[in-house]
């Protein structure tokens, strides 16, 4: 299954960083997502884009995860020559991660 089957995501950018929140549709899937979605796995998934570290924050009270990807936007929207220098599209991209179907 893909992450999109059990969660949705929101993302934004600030300078050269991307911030992605992953929120399960059902609170009961939160622990499963926590087990499957490590900072290392997210960093590997975005390896072509993210040139810095990835930090994962667990927001247990809201049953959500927040990932901060450093050095991911080629300098940010004002500095890059890239066509899409915003982090918004990363929310849709992260939902393509394959999860092990161990539920």
TrEMBL record:
Can you name the source organism? Answer: Clostridium aceticum
**Recorded superkingdom:** Bacteria
AtuA-like ferredoxin-fold domain sequence ranges: 1-99
Q: What is this protein called?
A: AtuA-like ferredoxin-fold domain-containing protein
